[in-house]
Amino acid sequence: MTPAATANQLLLTAHVAELGALRFTPAGLPALDLKLEHESKVIEAGKPRQVKAALKAVAFGAVAERLATQALGSLWRFRGFLATSGTAKHPVLHIQDFQQD
């Protein structure tokens, strides 16, 4: 496979719906669990469609520390990648960066 075919990147504009407490990994790295909610209108197959999605997310390090101080309901543009760990059934967005939308 070429590097482009193996890319795993997600850019999502979403509201912070749930914000866990800042915690630390066994290695001492700050970590934060959160839930994001997205709502928009898109065109699919030539027709308008209302889209809603809720997604679990996690952030580590300085990104987690920055996110921990943000208000519930605040709107951001998140950049990261999707991963499913252990016995989880759904992918989680690993946030690498975020900025005001």
UniProtKB/TrEMBL annotation:
Involved in the restart of stalled replication forks, which reloads the replicative helicase on sites other than the origin of replication; the PriA-PriB pathway is the major replication restart pathway. During primosome assembly it facilitates complex formation between PriA and DnaT on DNA; stabilizes PriA on DNA. Stimulates the DNA unwinding activity of PriA helicase. Belongs to the PriB family. GO terms for biological process: DNA replication, synthesis of primer. The keyword Ribosomal protein does not apply. The keyword ATP-binding does not apply. Keywords: DNA replication, DNA-binding, Primosome. InterPro entries: NA-bd_OB-fold, Prisomal_replication_PriB. This is Replication restart protein PriB. Homodimer. Interacts with PriA and DnaT. Component of the replication restart primosome. Primosome assembly occurs via a 'hand-off' mechanism. PriA binds to replication forks, subsequently PriB then DnaT bind; DnaT then displaces ssDNA to generate the helicase loading substrate. One of its GO terms (cellular component) is primosome complex. GO terms for molecular function: single-stranded DNA binding. Transmembrane segments: none annotated.
